[in-house]
Amino acid sequence: MAQRSVLKLTLIALFSFCLLKSYAQQGSSFNIMKRDPDLKLLNQGGELVLQKLSDYKGKNIIIDFWATWCSPCVFSIPKMDSLQEAFKGDLTVLLVTDENAKAVGAFAAKYKRIKGIGIQSVVEDTALGRLFPHSTVPQYVWIDKTGFVRYVSYPEAVTRSNVEKFIQGETLDIAQYRFPKTAADTLPPSLKRGARTGVATYLGDLLAKDSLLVSYHVLTDFISGHGGGGRFEKESINLSNLSICGLYAMAFGEGSLKYFGGFGRLNLLTNDSARFTDNSGSGNWSTAYRDQWRTIPGHEYSYFLKLAKGDTSNKYRVLREDLNANFPFVHAYIAQEQRNCYVLERTTEPPTFETTDTSAPVFERYSFLLNCHNVPMSRLTFALKFFLQDKPEPFEDKVDYTGNVNFKYEGSLTDLVKLNEALNKVGLRLTKQTIPIDVLVIEDKSYAKKEVSVLYEQSKSGAR
To answer: Is omega for the bond preceding 392 within 30 degrees of 0, making it cis?
Structure first.
């Protein structure tokens, strides 16, 4: 019997994946009506209607790939509704999701009740998703009234001005989604299978399950056509398309998002921030440069780690060591600094948010609704942190409670005045305070050093 080999890889490689039978292979445009995919439309009355895309023949269409759990998608619903109303008769906005009809129907009912906007969407989609592979949402496909696909764009391109030009047949100067163009034919079997999945993070999953690969460390350059993300398992780490700051944030957060998602808990000491950041977050500054930024070598990387079975090494320490080895110009550590923060704290004793309810737990988190019924306090604090992630001030939980809670809020989660009113009713409040917190310091070794209170320095310690 052949012995299983141990393969450890430390690679710097750019993988270009081939998405079969997709828009990427059609050139700059193709007539989608000739494919005429089947659709399941959940209308505003909650009825499931079988359609063909050709039912919309002769109309300008914007396909909006979305998901109920995607906050940017949900934020865009009023805008897309307004655009369709403004260009009534000239434009059809077609929402498309792979989620099931039951989930979308429940979401649509809540959205209609709270926001007053009716939703109809293609559900349980596979056909359009195969034609236009995407690893992130929202994603927009522009189809002219002759049935030709003209653009596949990011959200920032969908403006009233661009829609008007599109309807008039003018050429739009917009950043388009970049589809992978060539297959990685020379990759090992696991990597080839990963390429065919069309999702970067799944590459690590397939590697982790491969019968021949006992352990590995893989670092790649930006993987074209895929979004960023991460997944942590007991003996593996899968990170896709993250900046140097993002990679170190994951390494020091050790499975949490504590240092990830902005500069609230980051102190970047460098004269060349472009080398460390990916410029792919929210806001006009970042989206304006997204198309050209991500494909510049040295701006984003993917990392995949699998420990051998039974290996008790701290996988986050291994990740930090690998990052140090591949980015020798970086010095990363945790320090304590005074920062302005959003602090969640108690206002009454005993607080009314605590519960000993024995009924079934319910957790709903949308941009317009937060419903925590008999769920751990951590679910509430995570939701608040999630909706505050674009704020420059980090979120700090000072409630010191781990039991279950009841809290319900209907309204914009970014409206802090109304949110605080709801929190006050259950004995909580969210206020801005200046307090000492742990901060991830990422220092370019060529940068003039600043004095900081070092709590943990990676170069001198092992596992935390």
So the answer is: no
